[in-house]
Amino acid sequence: MLHTETIERTTLKLLTDIMQDEHFNGFHLAGGTALSLYLGHRKSIDLDLFTKNDFNTSQFSDYLIKEYDFKESYRAKNTLKGIIGNIKIDCIAHKYENIDPIYTADNIRLYGMKDIAAMKLNAIADNGTRLKDFIDIACLSTQISLSDMLESYQKKYPNTNAITALRALTYYKDIIKEPIMLIKGNYKWDFIETRIGDMIKKDTATFTSFPFK
Length: 213
Hints:
Layout: H1 9-19, E1 28-30, H2 31-39, E2 47-51, H3 57-68, E3 71-76, E4 79-84, E5 87-93, E6 103-105, E7 108-110, H4 113-126, H5 131-140, H6 146-156, H7 162-169, H8 189-201
Parallel strand pairs: 2-5
Antiparallel strand pairs: 1-2, 3-4, 4-5, 6-7
């Protein structure tokens, strides 16, 4: 059962609508919103939709404008970003093998948690500025050990090095502060840093609770 309380009603309505739209066949939800639906740890408002297939961004944008009043903000090959209503939506071709099968619940297709962990580590290794990525990895420790996360990262992105991701996971100077809306508990960066440190010390362990108080 998904934690649908983590996303706004309008976001959930849009998500369920597009998941039933044949033009989105092959697109699956990833990112922080997918993880929030799995874990129920924080509010999330963006929709990150990935596919392993090429798609015509010009035609897709035209369709979204007509059917969803889409406001395009960025377009490149196999990448389309914009806003529907007040909801940020990214549609991206991400041509990497899935570690886990796509999971479907409540008519929503989601990447598996190991895939999301790998994507989060990849984002941190590439650009460790997003506070939410670090929080999400810390919360994922309740389901997946750091050792398994790093193994998933290397399996999904075979040309990468787990040491690079591990170093990025412990480098915090570039993180940009942003509002964090938790479902339960209070956010404090010290709790996140401590959890990440514990994950490294006990890299095969999972933890019983989120790093919030």
